[in-house]
Design brief:
- GO terms for molecular function: formate transmembrane transporter activity.
- Pfam families: Form_Nir_trans.
- 83% of the residues lie in helices and 0% in strands.
- The protein is an all-alpha fold.
- The chain has one domain: Glycerol uptake facilitator protein (Up-down Bundle).
- The radius of gyration is 20 Å and the shape is globular.
């Protein structure tokens, strides 16, 4: 009987520790995320532009290493530089903004229109920063033109297929899981590792990411040698966006909201 009681107490303590960890992660998301949703327009657009620039540097590293080694996996590892820069610079990549803004709104600290504003501003900033820097990269790095066109064409040629949609769903889910893990730890080395691993999977598996792949397509279009145009880019963007939202919001974020519903209710009462 004594041993049984001891085991029961240990299990209860483990559950309490787990609940405390989950509560701490939710508190961090809400307290740190709320100010992000209420940034002024210039601040929101600026952080989005910086994120687009940082991802473009990762993209250039991907093209450079893949061209030099012929290995997509080594190129994917080089691309992780862009995600580490996003983490350390605290800039706003559009698809990283699925979990936090929705959770903040569910906690009663923002309205749906604040979430929509945040998404629009971060996406617009990402595209603007990426468009400009990919043009600069094309002018400076002629040796990477052929590789950039070839890699971008793969994504455009996917078309509107079930495979392409599922690749976009996986990308959205993976990025949102990365965000969730970032908020689940205070350890910067762990966060860096998570960023590197997520970036490696994203590009190594050829997942369809609305911002990253759009910037890659920008690069190809700037070369003047792409076998597709801006109309094809528009179709790709909408299709990839839908898949990313289904994966990031529909699969990961909403399930986390169900998991944390009592904690979020407490935040709403406090608000």
């Amino acid at each position: 009987m004594v041993e049984t009681s001891t085991v029961a107490r240990e299990k209860a303590a483990e559950r309490a520790d787990l609940d405390e960890t989950v509560a701490g992660a939710v508190d961090r998301i809400v307290t740190e995320g709320a100010p992000r949703l209420h940034r002024a327009w210039p601040d929101l657009l600026a952080t989005g532009v910086v994120a687009g620039i940082e991802v473009t540097f990762g993209l250039v590293a991907l093209l450079l290493v893949t061209e030099a080694t012929g290995s997509v996996l080594l190129g994917a590892l080089a691309f992780s530089f862009g995600f580490v820069a996003l983490l350390l610079g605290r800039s706003e990549l559009f698809t990283e903004g699925f979990l936090v803004p929705v959770t903040v709104a569910a906690a009663g600290r923002a309205r749906p229109r604040d979430v929509a504003r945040f998404w629009f501003g971060s996406a617009a900033g990402n595209l603007l920063g990426g468009f400009v820097l990919t043009w600069v990269a094309v002018q400076a790095l002629e040796a990477l033109h052929e590789r950039g066109v070839a890699m971008a064409t793969v994504y455009v040629d996917h078309g509107f297929t079930r495979e392409a949609f599922c690749l976009a769903v996986l990308a959205g889910a993976g990025i949102t899981m990365m965000t969730r893990m970032h908020n689940g730890t205070d350890s910067m080395p762990v966060r860096v590792f998570v960023s590197v691993f997520a970036a490696f999977l994203l590009t190594g598996l050829g997942l369809v990411h609305v911002i990253l792949d759009t910037l890659l397509i920008f690069f190809a279009l700037h070369t003047g040698g792409a076998p597709f145009g801006y109309g094809d880019l528009g179709g790709f963007f909408v299709f990839a966006l839908l898949g990313n939202v289904v994966g990031g919001v529909g699969l990961v974020t909403l399930l986390r909201l169900v998991r944390d519903r009592e904690l979020l209710a407490a935040h709403r009462r406090a608000a």
